[in-house]
């Protein structure tokens, strides 16, 4: 069970990257996101929700088994956050790039309430909460960019 938890917590050991493990783990989300995009929009949302619950289980189990809170190698929280960031967006290189950059910037800089969640929420939920917030805020911003820019005469991105 310990190996199972470690494998998923590090997202197939991508979290062991010596440089920028969170970024590497986020990039490692793309095959799963592609798989989820094979469903309709509702299927993507449900799959992302179920995966986020699975991520919570893994984060809680990791803390209990390894007796440490949110080490850099745990990147399953970035995977869940990036899946949230990509929700209901087109699976195009432009959308992926925008979501990736925005999600990573918010996850690294941790503006309120992302930073608050990172500091105040304890346990496995605390590991995951800041990434959920970063994913939600990234998605809201990108939904505005994709859907609400018609007043400019054209959408900023297609």
How does this model look, in words?
The chain is an all-alpha fold. The protein has one domain. Helices cover 68% and strands 0% of the residues. It has eight helices and no strands. The longest helix has 26 residues, at 41-66. It is globular and about 45 Å long. The mean pLDDT is 92.
Low-confidence residue ranges: none
For the record, the count of structural domains works out to: 1
Order of helices and strands: HHHHHHHH
Average pLDDT for all residues: 92
Amount of helix: 55-70%
**Mind telling me the C-alpha Rg?**
16 Å
Task: Summarize this entry quickly.
By secondary structure, this protein is mostly helical. It has helices spanning 2-9, 21-27, 30-36, 41-66, 76-85, 93-109, 114-120, 123-147. It contains eight helices and no strands.
Give the helix/strand layout.
Blueprint: H1 2-9, H2 21-27, H3 30-36, H4 41-66, H5 76-85, H6 93-109, H7 114-120, H8 123-147
Helix pairs in contact: 1-4, 2-5, 4-5, 4-8, 5-8, 6-8, 7-8
Describe the structure using short key phrases.
8 helices, mainly alpha, about 160 residues, globular
